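[Automated response] Your request has been received and processed.

Submitted sequence:
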Amino acid sequence: MGQVFSSFWLYWFPNKEYKLVMVGLDNAGKTTALFKLHLGEAITTQPTIGSNVEQVEFKNLTFEVWDLGGQASLRPSWASYYKATDAIILVLDSTDRARVRIAKGELQSILGHEDLRTIGILILANKQDLKDAMSVEEMSTALALTDIRDHPWHIQPCCALSGEGLFDGMEWIAQRVNQLRT
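Generated structure:
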């Protein structure tokens, strides 16, 4: 009887911590999204030099979220954080049409990394509150998302400042890790 209760408890209240790595070009809103998820409020941020890490509790799951600096000089170091990662969150500035090709190149690099062979990728199309933001469809086309066959992915429109869409994205990740757990 005790083992049945124990199994039931672990199913509903898992104690595993999942590692998420949040990447994206500089000024995409990664740190703002992280602190909105962690604290429930937007805070004033500075460009991330290196990384931030916070625990985010969501639906009885604990996520260790690594927010990595997005400047060109820091992007080569992203790969050193990939080992034992359960999902990638790619944050994109939906208004940054000039650098969408660079973001696509970084996504292709992520998809090709051997430590990330089967993990899911959540793409947060941030800054959707701005009038010149690309639609999710435009971003999907620009990133060639429909060509991705070997990784589960989801693109989520969001606004890191208000939090709109962030928890919908976390719901997708929670479903992915729950599927892997069962």
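Summary generated for your ticket: The chain has five helices and six strands. The chain has one domain: 16-181.
If you did not submit this request, please reply to this message.
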